[in-house]
Amino acid sequence: MDLRLLRSFLAVVDEGHFGKAAGRLFLSPAAVTQHVAKLESETGARLLHRGPPAVPTPAGQRLAGHARGLLAAAEAAREDMAEFAAEGPRTARPLRVGIMGHGSAELTPAAISAFHRARPDVPVEISQLDFTEHSSALVEDRVDVAFVRPAPDDERVTADVLTTEQRIVVVHRSSPYADARGEGLRIADMAHLPFFRVPAHTPRPFTEYLYFGDEAPRRSTETALTPQEVLTGVVTGRAAGSGLASFARYYAWPGAVFVPVLDAPWESSYLAVRADHTPRTHPEIPVFRALTLALARELGPRIGRGGGG
């Protein structure tokens, strides 16, 4: 059985509600519903009365007991093997690095290169994170460290400031806002910008960052999960986006114009890790974190002063 399906099922059993279970797991309600439906298909039994509240059927009660035992056994096996791996060859356990967009600009590839030089025997696996994976990739143990922005608001995650930059908006070159690229805009000037949409389960800190704290900005019909999708909406004249000043250096698409936002607080990028990580979780996390923070002290101020290019 897929342990992810069992986790979703148990979360619904514990919370009595699909939406609350989704929030606990940093998934969308639709994803949790699909997980439960797939589990019911695999077991051939109805597991939950949908409610509300969502209540396990007799078959669901029986499976819940099995599921708790299976997940506990999987966690015990992982801890046992982590201890073994810590004593064995380093190449047995890659370091998984998640990157949202361009991460922390030039600092991101510099940190990964520095880690390669310091630990040439440790493989590094890179995962590109979308806007909804602001903290969930770490919480769900899909990555070991993550370059994100802004700081996650989750007690299970801790984050270090790496770079601090001016905020910008990106618009099509035919937009009347494009004329302000030399002087800049103010937040009040952007009331009619058609900002792209993000999925409903995108973490609130990230949506506040995207929309400059405005809970109800004008929205485009376009939805985006990645900077590339943002730029596609911009250069086709269907949406506007926002980001850090270094965004302009990494996504200089023809037709896209980057305009500084003068009165928006400067925002930071972060290196995030799980708050409960220990050398047993992955012995190389502290090494990567230390190298990255050392480089941030050296390169971070220069990146922040670099502007939009």
Largest sheet: 5 strands, mixed
> Class by helix and strand content?
alpha/beta
Number of helices, counting only DSSP H or I runs of 4 residues or more: 10
The separation of the N and C termini measures 51 Å
Question: Could you give the order of strands across the largest sheet?
Answer: 4-3-5-12-6
Q: Please tally the β strands and state the result.
A: 12
Radius of gyration: 22 Å
Question: What's the quaternary structure here?
Answer: single chain
What is the string of SSEs from the N terminus onward?
HHHEEHEHEHEEEEHEHEHEEH
Low-confidence stretches: none
Strand content: 15-25%
Query: Can you give the helix content as a percent range?
Result: 25-40%
Shape, principal axes of CA atoms? flat
What is the arithmetic mean of pLDDT?
88
Describe the model.
The protein has 309 residues and is of the alpha/beta class. Helices cover 40% and strands 19% of the residues. It contains ten helices and twelve strands. It has helices spanning 3-15, 18-25, 29-43, 58-87, 107-118, 136-139, 204-210, 227-235, 247-250, 285-305; strands spanning 48-49, 55-56, 95-100, 124-129, 145-148, 157-165, 167-172, 195-197, 219-223, 241-244, 256-260, 267-274. It has a five-stranded mixed beta sheet with strand order 4-3-5-12-6. Helix 2 (18-25) crosses helix 3 and helix 5 packs antiparallel against helix 10. The radius of gyration is 22 Å and the shape is flat. The mean pLDDT is 88.
What descriptive keywords fit this protein?
single chain, 309 residues, alpha/beta, 5-stranded mixed beta sheet, 3-stranded antiparallel beta sheet, 10 helices, 40% helix, 19% strand, flat
